[in-house]
Amino acid sequence: MNEKFIKEVLALLWINRYGVLGRYRLRKLLDLTEGVTRGLLKKLSNESLVKAEGRRGFSLTRKGLENLKQKLKELSIKEIKEIDIDELKTSGESVVIHLRNLEYNVRNGLEQRDAAVKAGANGATTLIFKNGVLYIPFTFQKPEELPKELSQIFKDQFNLRNGDVLIIGFGRDKAKALEGALAASLYTLRASLRGDFLKKDA
User: Fold this and answer.
1) How far apart are CA 36 and CA 59, in angstroms?
2) Do domains 3-73 and 77-194 have the same CATH topology?
3) How far apart (Å, rounded) are the C-alpha atoms in residues 193 and 90?
4) Is 3-73 CATH 1.10.10.10?
5) How far apart are the first and last CA of the chain?
6) Domain spans of the chain?
């Protein structure tokens, strides 16, 4: 799973969101060249994940929707929501990705931030849900618990379980915020595969 994988997931997400999406609009959302976008759509079409809707653009097939759901499951992504969070926002727009039970794949959130920036986003904030509390992890100091009002916003929006992770991607627009959050989520999932962290007792 790499940048191409992320772009493919993003393409399926955006086409699913809009119902029918033209190549030019998709190219802008993915921040790709015309040639690369054409090649990506050809690949998705050959795999019967999308179908052409004349001059209107492309739509997701039933197989494409199932493929998208499977990809999100592989990434441990439970939900993706656009939530405007001024208290945590560094700049621009924000998108939140809910990861199921990946608490032990997070060290201090800096790696997730860096992964988001590398993907072209402005940054990312990582939150962990533990024993009914949402907090921002740190390495050399106690975790910072979110204010109750802010914490309640997330609890109302997401069905959180012990050990879940929320990654808030920030970008100049929703597209870059989503791409940053997705890249940070992929980094988080792969942390255990790299052996970066040893699972501790809960």
Assistant:
1) 18
2) no
3) 30
4) yes
5) 29
6) 3-73, 77-194
Instruction: Give the ranges where 95-166 is alpha helix by DSSP (H).
Output: 110-118, 148-157
Q: How many residues does the chain have?
A: 202
Say what angle helices 23-30 and 34-46 make with each other, to 10 degrees: 110
Residues contacting residue 132 through CB under 8 Å, at least 6 positions apart? none
How many Cβ atoms sit within 10 Å of the Cβ of residue 46? 9
Could you list the pLDDT tens digit for every one of the 202 residues in the chain?
578 899 999 999 999 999 999 999 999 999 999 999 999 999 999 999 999 999 999 999 999 999 999 999 998 999 999 987 766 656 689 999 999 999 999 988 999 999 999 999 999 999 999 999 899 887 545 667 888 888 899 999 999 999 999 999 999 999 999 999 999 999 999 876 544 544 443 3
SS3 111: helix
Q: Which fold has domain 77-194?
A: Gyrase A; domain 2 (3.30.1360)
The angle subtended at Cα 184 by Cα 182 and Cα 188, nearest 5°, is: 115
By CB atoms closer than 10 A (0-12, 13-18, 19+), residue 110 is middle
User: 174-194 and 23-30 are packed helices; what angle lies between their axes, rounded to 10 degrees?
Assistant: 60
